[in-house]
Design brief:
This protein has 359 residues and is mainly α. The chain is built from eleven helices and two strands, in the order αβααβαααααααα. The chain has helices spanning 3-31, 46-69, 78-113, 121-145, 148-168, 190-218, 223-245, 252-276, 282-302, 310-335, 352-358; strands at residues 37-38, 118-119. The two termini are 33 Å apart.
């Protein structure tokens, strides 16, 4: 990106941030009328501000995507265009959820430190404006040109924020003695279950972007293998979403099948993604072997030694998986060109005419 274009984009981002601040403040003035409110708890500021900031962030991402990526899919075949648009919709939902959960978690943290703090509508509106400006700026910047490694970071951050909020609002303070599924129980379980559903959507979107990058790297000849990679990441996301949609108290069998399926599908997706890379690069092989050894050690420390509960093993497994994903997408970013690649195929699956063009 040249200097003048970069400065122009930064100026647009500043104006977008200011607009998000104004929209959030105006919406807060309308929604927060009445008696002064606390930061968190029943009838507090957190819930309405989370909704306002989430909507503003989603709108900022949509505006930025249309503004900076208009015409990107004009020359693409319908199937490639459909994947691009579906990914944009999923990201819109994700940015709204990340912003909303961030506000809710922030409300809990500041509420614990600012005892008996209340503010009238104007003060609440200003807080809504600041939250909208932060979330809106983040989303608007992503719309300029989000990359696969940015998505992996977003997924990691969202899982952290959502899980911390679910832990802080858990109905059973001793949930950690069993497993993470306990966070999804009861009326307050919506936080953890919702986190899993949105994280599943993000997993599928990351898979679509991995497929995009692999296509830029290897072209139409590798589309069949790339389609398998994307499908496995999509299935991983779907299984994780089912874990959230079907809490353990609703159907224990379906919940655990989906949970185990998520781990198995993630492993398959990781293996096929590594296989799809030319090489594969040494950094990725070292990380894969090292993290695999650490995972085996974690299992041994849990089952025979009983050093920690299932919660500890789950946390280690998820953490190692996200570390591997971060390594993979960073390696991918080094190898893949930035320019979009338009497929020459009219359909995803190769026909006779497509086979001739691939040669």
């Amino acid at each position: 990106m040249d200097t003048s274009r970069g400065l122009r984009n930064e100026t647009q981002t500043v104006w977008a941030t200011a607009l998000c601040l104004a929209l959030g403040t105006a919406a807060g003035l309308v929604v927060l009328q009445g008696s002064p409110r606390a930061l968190t708890g029943p009838g507090s500021l957190s819930q309405p501000i989370a909704v306002i900031a989430g909507i503003v962030a989603a709108a900022a991402f949509v505006v930025s995507t249309v503004q900076h990526r208009r015409g990107e899919t004009d020359r693409m075949p319908p199937w490639q265009t459909a994947i691009s648009h579906a990914s944009a919709v999923a990201l819109t939902v994700a940015f709204a959820a990340v912003t909303a959960f961030g506000v809710l978690l922030g409300g809990l943290v500041f509420g614990a430190g600012l005892h008996d703090f209340t503010t009238p509508a104007l003060g609440g509106a200003l807080i809504a404006g600041v939250a909208s400006a932060i979330g809106g700026r983040f989303a608007y910047t992503a719309g300029v040109g989000i990359r696969t490694r940015d998505l992996a970071t977003l997924l990691f951050g969202f899982l952290t924020i959502g899980t911390l909020f679910a832990m802080a609002t858990a109905a059973d303070p001793l949930w950690w003695q069993q497993n993470f599924s306990q966070l999804g129980l009861g009326a307050r379980g919506w936080a953890f279950n919702g986190t899993l559903v949105v994280a599943g959507l993000l997993f599928a979107t990351v898979g679509a972007y991995i497929g995009r990058d692999l296509h830029r790297l290897r072209g139409d000849r590798a589309l069949r293998g790339i389609a398998v990679v994307v499908a496995l990441w999509g299935a991983t996301g779907l299984a994780l979403a089912v874990v959230g949609f079907v809490p353990i108290e609703l159907n224990r069998v379906v919940h655990w099948i989906a949970a185990i399926g998520t781990l198995v599908l993630f492993a398959l997706a990781a293996a096929m993604s590594t296989k799809a890379l030319p090489g594969p690069p040494r950094a990725l092989l070292v990380a894969t072997i090292g993290l695999g050894v650490l995972l085996v050690a974690a299992v041994l420390l849990h089952i025979p030694v009983r050093l920690y509960s299932s919660t500890g093993l789950e946390a280690i497994a998820v953490g190692l998986g996200l570390v591997w994903m971060t390594t993979f997408v960073r390696v991918l970013a080094v190898l893949v060109p930035d320019a979009p690649r338009v497929s020459a195929r009219a359909t995803l699956w190769r026909g006779e005419g497509d086979a001739r063009r691939d040669r």
